[in-house]
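Hi U.,

Before I forget, here's the chain from the pilot set. I'm dumping it here mostly so it's searchable later in email.
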Amino acid sequence: MEYFDYFSSLNLLFLFCSDKVTDALLEKLSDKNWKMRKEGLEEVTAILNEAKFITANIGGLAEALKHRLGDSNKILVSHSSYW
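Structure:
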């Protein structure tokens, strides 16, 4: 608790991703349709751009992004490796 209080006193925005990384987002990232996967990656980009700092609790996001690095659509691979 002290860790959070210290950074809160500095007025830094922490993004607790667990509430933003939903099952629906993870499903988009693993959809068969590349357009849905792209939409999911765009949502992830928006989430990450919103945060100054990200906590370690990101749910299944890391695993989902790992799979996108091996995507058959090379545009999505380059989009996934942006982070």
